[in-house]
Amino acid sequence: MIKLIVLILFSIPSSLLAQQPKAFRIIGHSIYYNNQRLTIQGGMFFPSYNDFEFAKDNIDTSGKPYKSIQVQNNRFTISGTLKYPHPFTISYYNPETEQGYSSYVFFVDQDNLTIELNDLSKIKNLGSHFFSKSNYEYYRLKKLYSNSVDTITGAVYNMQEKQKILQKYIKNHPDSYVALWDMVLDYSLFKNDSIKKTFLINAQFFSSEIKKTRTYQAFVTNIELDFELVVGKIFPNFPLNSVDSLYQILNKNKFTLVDFWFSGCKPCLEQFPDLTKIYSTFKENQFEITGISVDVKKDIGNWQKIIKKFDLAWLQYLDTDGKETDKLLIRKFPTNFLLNRKGEIIRKDISLDDLETFLQNNLNSQDIKQ
Questions:
Q1: Which CATH code is given to the segment(s) 246-362?
Q2: CATH code assigned to 16-131
Q3: pTM to 2 decimals?
């Protein structure tokens, strides 16, 4: 009987064993942020991509990809479990200046990691003692496409060239979680529909082990469904609150810009001054803007402050925690859709210059779609 049990145990596939949650711990040191609160975020903001959990404390963090931590005696510790490497960032928000700063991306494996945190407004790296195998791989990977990517910040100069190099890397390293996350992080920032096909092609070269992960499946599903929200398609009748729906607004206007944002999104906030000018110019000409914020519950106050600070005069709605937005797999911010009365998507992620030109050319035209 004992021999039988042993045989059964050894017959468990190694792939299943590899996907069992294991503990991780981040040991941090920071003189600069002593007695301050920091926020750490792992994976993606939307949990469907992630397969890790922070250890629970008096503030339940179950299922959330972010956690608030207090630096005491120049130290802090973050622990939890994960099934495979995940990227993390640490950020600090100064309520007095209403400015936030984040570290560069770093990877956490199923092990201990020691980091050194300085003034994030000036120094975004986390020291030279990364005892993370995945961090070393991430560094080497960025070096491979140094001609198309800033190897320090990760900013992409030439996405097509980067993806060519990454495809070759994935073919040679089909079990690379770092390469998978690198693609996911690129996709969260890059909005060109043509490049999305390249992402799908590259994704097919990952191993069967990688393809079983939540991250891979969410990534591929997101791209495939994203193609449903393209120019010419009908945008869903988004529920704005218990009373209002998007189509009620569309019916009253020739064109409506639906803008998805949140109060901690710097690019979202940077567009507001120019967007305000456009709205002031065309609002009397049956042009409307509908702002939909995905702020989490604890940031509702900040959302309200931003609306007041920028004097946003158009319609504003709150999709708390992005629950309805996530159903449409909208996970890049800002994201906008220009719609006509029928709900047809006229433009997606239209620039403000192009929006102004479009409205100038069409709001006085007799050929507007009714």
A1: 3.40.30.10
A2: 2.60.40
A3: 0.69
